[in-house]
Amino acid sequence: MRIKDEAAHANTIGIGGHIRPDGDCVGACMALYQYLVKVFPNKRIDVFLEQPADVFSCICGVEHIRTDFCTDVESYDVFFALDTAKERLGGAEKFFADAEKTINIDHHVSNPGCGDVNYVDAQASSTSELVFDVMDMEELDVEIAKAIYIGIIHDTGALRYSNTSPKTLEIVGKLISFGFDFSEVIEKTFYQKTYVQNLLLGRALLESIQFMDGKCVVSGLAKKTLDFYHADSKDLDGIVSHLNQTAGVECAIFMYQTGVQEYKVSLRSKGNVDVAKLAVFFGGGGHVRAAGCTMKGTFHDVVNNLSLHIERQLKAAGIL
Ligand code: AMP
Ligand code: MN
């Protein structure tokens, strides 16, 4: 699939990504937005996302994101869903449903493809990598390259996770040849944390519990703690990966309270536990080593429900 061909006959084009957008989602959406604006200067192009974290304000065009999910376009000729299936488009789900033609670009193993045209590859490091694939290299510029780079960096843990392939690195090589300060981009968008983010990470680590013979680690933050620090989900990025770095741990669980007896759960695995399977069972999705879902119950209910499945998988793999 080529974006230029798929969107050639459209007058109005919309783009949406998943709720609580992460670096890959923001990078992919903004790279595609910039590309379409550049290639089709006379078309109407809108991008819809929930407000991204402040660190992504270095991406060109973020001020154009329609975070209020308002538009005067009745129905888009083409609508792109990036880094998700349609169910997690949030306020953009209605635009996707009403569009003449839908295109889905994603790398979640839990997404079979929900568009009229699908470019879904669970082997890809990131949706940003897939967005690069379907663009014409001669149309890229330094700002588009930077947005794609940010997406790849965030979904590969700065090119560290096993989803980083030779192809990913080849693409990154091409991207950094555009000449942006890639070192600063990694430092400022990926590693740098606010003081509050560090405090929350500290609390989560301090209060974490290792169980199942050290193969699992869990931590959670209650709503009152987040309120005390005036924090939201954007301040919790990276905590679950940190927990998963614990020696001996096969599966890490981090959850934060989103309501009465309701938690947003993030799961990470070293590879022997398929956390996508787990997340899908509880109504979420993701990848083998990184997945998420929302679960009802107390902190202990959530741990108990997840543990049962983790234990089964570890026993089947002969690790427990
Ligand atoms: P998280 O731990 O929430 O950052 O998510 C880890 C991975 O799982 C990301 O690729 C998310 O896009 C994906 N993910 C998280 N929650 C869900 C969900 N409810 N449905 C589908 N995918 C999810
Ligand atoms: Mn992604």
Write a short abstract of this structure:
The protein has 320 residues and is of the alpha/beta class. It is 37% helix and 19% strand.
Task: Offer a few descriptive terms.
19% strand, 320 residues, binds manganese (II) ion, six-stranded mixed sheet, 12 helices, alpha/beta, binds adenosine monophosphate
The oligomeric status of these chains comes to single chain
Structural class: alpha/beta
What is the N-to-C succession of helices and strands? HEHEEHEEHHHHHEEHHEEHEEH
The helix count comes to: 12
What does this structure look like?
This protein is of the alpha/beta class. 37% of the residues lie in helices and 19% in strands. It contains twelve helices and eleven strands. The chain has helices at 3-7, 23-39, 93-98, 127-133, 142-155, 166-176, 182-191, 195-206, 223-228, 239-244, 275-281, 299-316, and strands at residues 12-17, 44-48, 78-82, 101-106, 117-120, 209-211, 216-221, 251-259, 262-269, 285-286, 290-296. It has a six-stranded mixed sheet with strand order 6-7-8-9-11-10, with helices on both faces. It has a five-stranded parallel sheet with strand order 2-1-3-4-5. Strand 10 and strand 11 (290-296) form a beta hairpin. Helix 5 (142-155) crosses helix 7 (182-191). It starts with a helix and ends with a helix. The mean pLDDT is 98. Bound molecules: adenosine monophosphate and manganese (II) ion (MN). Manganese (II) ion binds next to loops.
